[in-house]
Fold each of these.
Amino acid sequence: MRDIDSLLSDLQQQVYDLIRLAGWEGKTVDEIEVALGKSHQSVSARVNELENWKPKPLIERRAARRPTRTGRKAYILVAYGLRRANKEEAPPEGK
């Protein structure tokens, strides 16, 4: 079986690495845009691909949100299956 890293595009890999290495603190799409110097469209598309990766997602949204540069609350993205000791629940399917 091939390693997941070999299946990701360069930008998918960059987005995944930022989220994975952030641990439970995770990253918002806005924070990823700033870190990579990429447009919202490019980053949000890659996030969507990683959230819907088959056979299982690579990232997921925490129930918590954090403000963006504009003050809007955005979901915090973490590596799929990552749970903190308080067992924060993941958002409902499809959210």
Amino acid sequence: MGFPHATSCIAVAIAACSPIPSHVMEGHADGRIAVEFPGALRDHMLRNMRDHLDTLQRIEDALARGSYDEAARLSETRLGLTSLSLHGAHDVAPYMPEGMQAIGTEMHKAASRFSIEASSAGATGDPRPALRALALVMGQCVACHAAYRLKP
């Protein structure tokens, strides 16, 4: 039978190192791990994911305007480690496979690191380290969505 979490760990490793497979983008059966949340928590999780996307768009806009402190604040308060209680992470984590939890935790850590780099860009005038850090945040989003999906 193997280890219960071995499949999710393998999926995470593949997703983290590979581009999204073309069959995922074409809408065919995609082989992602289906994760089941109770009804209300499923809706909560979907709202969180939409909020994450909205926040990433707002961060990109702030960076484009040179508003590095605003980008840093958005990242830390909406995505970073200090946002965990805001998004009810304690409530949804028990329903996530171990690999999904690991990706989520790394995304939140990466967002906090981005916040530091964005603040530094305000002092140095060089946004490149912040942009690299933001790419790492989004890389976690891509890895999770490539490896997992919510059951309807």
Amino acid sequence: MGVIFNIQEAVNNSAFNILQEPIKMILEREVEAFERESIIPKVFNMRTTDKYREEFRSVTAMDGFKPVEDMEPAGISSFEEGYNKQYVFQEWKNAFVVSKQVIEDNEAASIEPKALGFIKGYGRTRELYAVRMIGAALGNVYPEYRITANSGKGMDTTDGTVEGTKQQYFTNAHHRLNDSVGTYNQSNKFYASLTFDGSDALLPEKIADVIGQVGSIMHKYKDEKGNIVPVAVKRIVIAEDYVLETALREGLRRKFGDSLGGYEIVVSPYLSDITGFTDSDHALLLISPERNREGMGATWFDRVPLTVKSFIDDHTDANYWTGRARFGAGFGDFRAMSYIALTSSGSTNATQITPVVAGKPVHVTNPSSAPVYTDEIA
């Protein structure tokens, strides 16, 4: 994110000048803290821009190499215009005030909470906007953030035409350009009806199997000409869900050992309040960082970094600190990531995955409504 400071000359010639460096240090420190813990670069392809809006248009893949006779010239690969997507960026502002009286009465200790609250509010706003955009990709709207029904649409269209109505980003009805509707559908939204009440001793293995099956589907995604698109799925994003995280890590450990199959697991408490990622959903995102970057999957634009201005108000003699930034996010190529709900709550417009796990012999040591399962001793 970073911070750009604009200190008015009048501030440097006043009693408020002693506050400038401490407040700047507080703001920079907290921005760095949010950057280290942020979910944004884990889900979104980070970009900067100097435009009011950005528009991207995909093109069909290049043809493959073909066998030729000796001295035969190479054929020219044809490209066709693909889907397009526009990104528009919002303006975000906030401010806090230090009164002249605070300086006169030597109450500098009361200023730090204001500075902390100001910059934490900025970092929190970015995180909340990011997770709400993820919710929008599932069909949610958040008017307080100007996130509408169109915010969560991807690059492809519902009818396969170049300029048609945009398709929901997470759905099982993605199809190739110019295909008839219902033909060659590809899915990046899945669900599995798993049980999280403690009665299923194979829950970790089932979660790992579901992830493996969805990863296999993603490895076989096809482009507009029917070519397989290489997708390396290496990141899993979940909400703050202790039950899911524990079972997920255990399932990957049992399958791959301590390496967890090379998966990076990212946990975001901000996701917990988003419809589709609550405790009843036990949902996750399966992401290919490379495809996300190359295909403009989920993309975040920082149009104007946080610019903080410090000035003295002529009418009140108070020191104002105002912050302004412009940023926005959107979705393009669906092949970059998939959503998986591990309960039936996410079954709408989703592909069902049935885990295939070989059961281990178990012995019921407490045959009651809440049995305890242990491995059978041979």
